[in-house]
Each structure stands twice: as structure tokens, then as C-alpha cells.
Write a structure and sequence with these properties.
Distance between the termini: 63 Å
CATH topology of the largest domain: Rossmann fold
Helix content: 25-40%
Largest sheet: 7 strands, mixed
Radius of gyration: 23 Å
CATH class of the largest domain: Alpha Beta
Number of strands: 14
Shape: globular
CATH superfamily of the largest domain: Vaccinia Virus protein VP39
Order of helices and strands: EHEEHEHHEHEEHEHHEHEEHHEHEE
CATH architecture of the largest domain: 3-Layer(aba) Sandwich
Length: 383
């Protein structure tokens, strides 16, 4: 029987996620702001959780019904067969999001949904599940529109960008699924030379190496679907074994990372080591303004520094024109993809982006700027 799912993702990556889920065998794939609706047989959610580099969570839709008030919501939730899905010993957390919801308090709605689940379990078992807001076994998500509630059970657990690999991060770390999405938006393919000259804790490098070696992003972690009563351990083991069978052995790759700061480079090295990818990537300490292109052509990606990391915004204002000049002088023939939350960069870089893609790194609104570097030809014309 076909089930309905929703995969959330960073805004700006919906189209990339559509392609990824379609490749995994999803049906009726439909993008919306911040995610993708799809359907398929139950084991599809195992594959999506294991293989998706772009999704933040994979949610299983368990109800969609109109409501007028909080009591309608309680009734819809109470009517569901919670005891068929997970045991009363599992801890729960309820998350509520809404657009144009006429009801006054989302906190009260959250409480009513929690009460409905607990009351149903008490009727079935005489006990109620405990609430754990930090590390719950089961997350229940409700999305309220003007007069309709959609209810989901989270099959992922921890967000999927938590690959279980990165221990050391900088002040404004790049989320793993956003890094993977930027690599896909750039058109970068395994085997193409990649350089991150401001690599920080190494997120772009790890994602690119995993893509190059066919390493499933979720291969090293656990998922909430393993705690559901319908968990098919044999099917899951088969899906994991298929993923492991196509992994390539770790070997040096044309993936280069550098950073001005020794502490950042140390973090990248430790993260790559934990991921078993240290020998796949070339690292060195270098100033982005002084580094030379390692080849005639390639893709350069960078998560440009936030104010906290390199000092105040006036320091960044001095950096951007120098960075534009360095790219023109030393990276002719390359394509650069720069992620930034600073709109001033568009004037200060003195280069014209060939494409601008709005996206979010967590709650931070950013732009991904594409620059096709041709020596002397990208400077904006005066007037």
C-alpha cells in the first residue's frame, strides 16, 4: 500500500530534492516551500532517510482533516491508532507549525495534541507516554492551514543533516544538507576539481568526498523508524547492505580545502578523520587572497565569513573587493559559488554574478552567487 510522506529541506533546494527523491523511486513528487510531498511503499522512507543528502526530515502523513477549533484537533488526533504505531514506553515530542491559522495559541494546540495522544494510550494501556523535548523517541508534527490540519509522524529522529560525522564546528557552521545542495546546484560532478578556500570545519569537503565515493549520508546513524512497531529489520538490513556494496574505497580525490586559520583547519582535519575521509582530501593553511588555482579549470565553493567569525562588517567590506580581484587574477576559467548573508557583497565584490539563488542556512537568509571567472571581463561597467 502506498503511503504519503513529506520531506522538509532548506528553502532554495526544493527542486534538487525533487530530483533526488524521484531517483530513489518516489511517486507523485510535488515541491512546496520548504519541502517536497511524495508517496510510495513503506520501505521508501528507509531509502529516503538513508540516501537523501538534501532532506532535513522525512515525515509520514497519518492524518489530514478540516478543523474549526481546538476540540476538533483533539478529536482527530485521539481517533488515530497510536498504539499500533509505537509503544507507550516511547517518549514523545509534539511540534506545531501554522500558516493563516485562525486559532489563537499554537502552544495550546500543541498541548491538546499531546493530551490526545496520551489520553489514547491511557485508554489502551492504562499508561501514558512521557514527554521529552530534547531527545524524544517519537516526534509528532502538526501543520495547520486556514481550516485544515495535516499530522505527521517523524521517521528520521535527529535531523538528517546530522550525519553523525562532524564533531568540530565554527561559529556559523554550514548545514550538511545545504552544502550538498549547493554542490548539486553548482553542477559539480565527482571527478571535477573542487576547491573550498575558506573550508572552516570542512562541510563542503566531506559532502563532496561522500558523493565521490558513493557513501550514503545516513550510513553511520540511527533513525526513528527503527522504533516504530512496523519496523522491518530484514528490509532495512537489505537496503543498508545495498548501499554499502556500492561504496568505493577511500583514495585521493581532486578535492582541496584551505583556510587562513589553523584552528579551522584542525577542525576540518579532525572531522575528515572521523569520517574516514582524511586521505581523500588535500588540506593546507592558506590565505584565500594569496592562494593559486590548483588547475586551469574547476569549481570553487565558499561559505563566506559571517561578521562574528572575522570581526566586524567593515573588515568584510575590505575583504570583498580584494577577493573579487584575487578571483579574476588567479581563477580565470573557473566557476565560483559563494554563499553569503551580506547583501553588500554584490557591490563590493566588483564582479557581476551570473546567477543568484536565495536560500537559508538554518534561520539565516543567504544568497548563493555564481561567478563565471573570465579574466578582466566581469567587472561591472560604470554608468
Amino acid at each position: 500500500m502506498s503511503e504519503f510522506f513529506f520531506a522538509s529541506c532548506p528553502r532554495g533546494l526544493e527542486a534538487v530534492l525533487v530530483n533526488e527523491l524521484t531517483t530513489l523511486g518516489a511517486q507523485d513528487v510535488r515541491a512546496t516551500d520548504g519541502g517536497v510531498h511524495f508517496c510510495g511503499e513503506w520501505p521508501l522512507n528507509y531509502r529516503a532517510n538513508l540516501h537523501s543528502r538534501i532532506a532535513s526530515r522525512v515525515l509520514w502523513r497519518v492524518a489530514m482533516k478540516d478543523y474549526r477549533n481546538e476540540q476538533d484537533i483533539y478529536g482527530t488526533v485521539y481517533a488515530l491508532p497510536w498504539g499500533d504505531w509505537f509503544d507507550v514506553s516511547r517518549t514523545i515530542r509534539v511540534n506545531v507549525a501554522a500558516i493563516k491559522c485562525p486559532l489563537k495559541s499554537l502552544d495550546f494546540i500543541t498541548l491538546k495534541i499531546k493530551d490526545a495522544v496520551c489520553d489514547k494510550f491511557r485508554k489502551l494501556t492504562g499508561e501514558r507516554p512521557d514527554v521529552d523535548t530534547h531527545e524524544p523517541d517519537m516526534r509528532i508534527h502538526a501543520f495547520l492551514e486556514h481550516n485544515r490540519m495535516t499530522l505527521y509522524v517523524d521517521t528520521s529522529g535527529d535531523a538528517l543533516f546530522k550525519r553523525g560525522l562532524r564533531l568540530h564546528t565554527n561559529i556559523a557552521p554550514l548545514r550538511e544538507n545545504l552544502a550538498a545542495g549547493i554542490l548539486q546546484l553548482s553542477g559539480w560532478q565527482p571527478g571535477t576539481l573542487l576547491l573550498d578556500p575558506m573550508c572552516g570545519s570542512g562541510t563542503f569537503l566531506i559532502e563532496a568526498a561522500q558523493m565521490s565515493l558513493n557513501i550514503a549520508p545516513g550510513i553511520g546513524r540511527n533513525f526513528a523508524f527503527e522504533k516504530l512497531k512496523n519496523f522491518d529489520a530484514a528490509a532495512w538490513q537489505e537496503i543498508r547492505a545495498e548501499a554499502q556494496a556500492v561504496q568505493k574505497p577511500v583514495a585521493p580525490l581532486p578535492i582541496h580545502g584551505s583556510d587562513l586559520y589553523g584552528d579551522e583547519l584542525k577542525a576540518a582535519r579532525l572531522n575528515l578523520e572521523k569520517a574516514g575521509l582524511l586521505q581523500a582530501v588535500s588540506l593546507k593553511q592558506a590565505n584565500v587572497l594569496e592562494i593559486s588555482a590548483p588547475a586551469e579549470h574547476g569549481i570553487l565553493v565558499a561559505n563566506l565569513p559571517y561578521g562574528e567569525r572575522m570581526g566586524e562588517l567593515d573588515e568584510l567590506a575590505k575583504l570583498y573587493p580584494k577577493l573579487g580581484d584575487a578571483l579574476k587574477k588567479k581563477f580565470s576559467g573557473w566557476t565560483a559559488y559563494l554563499l553569503t548573508s551580506d547583501k553588500a557583497i554584490l557591490k563590493l565584490m566588483r564582479l557581476s554574478p551570473s546567477r543568484r539563488t536565495p536560500m537559508f542556512n538554518g534561520t539565516i537568509e543567504c544568497r548563493l552567487l555564481e561567478y563565471k571567472i573570465v579574466a578582466g571581463s566581469n567587472r561591472k561597467q560604470a554608468g
